[in-house]
Amino acid sequence: MKELSGKVAVVTGGASGIGRAMARRLGAEGMKVVVSDVEPGSLQETVKDLEARGVEAQGVVADVSQADAVHRLADRTVDAFGGVHVVCNNAGVFAGGLSWEASVSDYEWVLGVNTWGVIHGIRSFVPILLAQGEPGHIVNTASMAALTSGPLSGAYFMSKHAVLALSESLYHELHMKQAPIGVSVVCPELIATRIGEADRNRPAHLKRGSDDELPPETRTVEAAIRTATQGGADPGVIADRMLEAIVEDRFYVLAPEGDPWRDACHARLEDVRAARNPRLSVPG
Ligand SMILES: NC(=O)c1ccc[n+]([C@@H]2O[C@H](COP(=O)([O-])OP(=O)(O)OC[C@H]3O[C@@H](n4cnc5c(N)ncnc54)[C@H](O)[C@@H]3O)[C@@H](O)[C@H]2O)c1
């Protein structure tokens, strides 16, 4: 998709971190932007920030794990701006722990936001893009976790592998239909965002007890994610990569060669190719 100016973008999880950087980047290209999130306060701040940068923006509170909410987001976007061209299915959360100790609520929450959020985004927005018949682009935020594996984050790894697989299917299907709609899957390395504090947005029915009741591995890995992401790259780096991918119609948006997460991705692919047992190659 080459022409972005005057077109319409929607970004889920847009009130913080990578999503906010995406919204700013797309706005800087002259796009009208619908920012969506579950956190009303930071959503309002983000809309103000975009408007201060001269971007025509609207905020819509929506929980991406809920099909109806994403459907309403699509309706609100079209009502506000008359169409939609770039859809960033970006909202995501993290919970860690041993696979057999992570609670059913942890699995439901992580898969609900990270995987079902993308499913709902595709089901609600792709039919609108197809009906419009204009150039468009779907951007799904996965992670380098989609191309690697490691201990203590099973729900997160599987949620992102699923996003990668679904994005590849979508890419093939849109080609089959000869639709003018590109697909990119964004796979960030460690980025300085608030994902280490993702618990702030857990819905009441999936809440955990107190921290003291958590298994030690859960506490350790979640503390490690908080520290590691704080030292990560600026979210703007990912927004720039995303923009390039939209304009150049590139599917895989990966950490650069030389990044330890890219090395881990190569190591995993080599193990699969040789049918070797998985080595532990993810950083940390
Ligand atoms: N930060 C990293 O190191 C990193 C690395 C790889 C991938 N990612 C992915 O990037 C995406 C953005 O995360 P981030 O790092 O910017 O974290 P972040 O916490 O700063 O931003 C995530 C946003 O998603 C929102 N959100 C949470 N639950 C939601 C829900 N149910 N519905 C709608 N919005 C919801 C949050 O309120 C927040 O504004 C996620 O998909 C994450 O998995 C992040």
Describe this protein's structure.
The protein is of the alpha/beta class. It has a single domain (8-259), classed as Rossmann fold, CATH 3.40.50.720. It contains eight helices and seven strands. It has helices at residues 17-28, 40-52, 67-81, 104-132, 154-176, 216-230, 235-248, 260-273; strands at 8-12, 32-37, 57-61, 86-89, 136-141, 181-186, 252-253. A seven-stranded parallel beta sheet has the order 3-2-1-4-5-6-7, with helices on both faces. α1 crosses α7, α3 (67-81) packs parallel to α4 (104-132) and α4 (104-132) runs parallel beside α5 (154-176). The structure holds nicotinamide-adenine-dinucleotide (NAD). Nicotinamide-adenine-dinucleotide binds next to α1 and α4.
Give a short synopsis of this structure.
This protein has 284 residues and is of the alpha/beta class. It contains eight helices and seven strands, in the order βαβαβαβαβαβααβα. Helix 5 (154-176) links the parallel strand 5 (136-141) and strand 6.
CATH superfamily: NAD(P)-binding Rossmann-like Domain
Q: Indicate the mean pLDDT.
A: 98
Largest sheet: 7 strands, parallel
Which of globular, elongated, flat, extended, rod-shaped describes the shape? globular
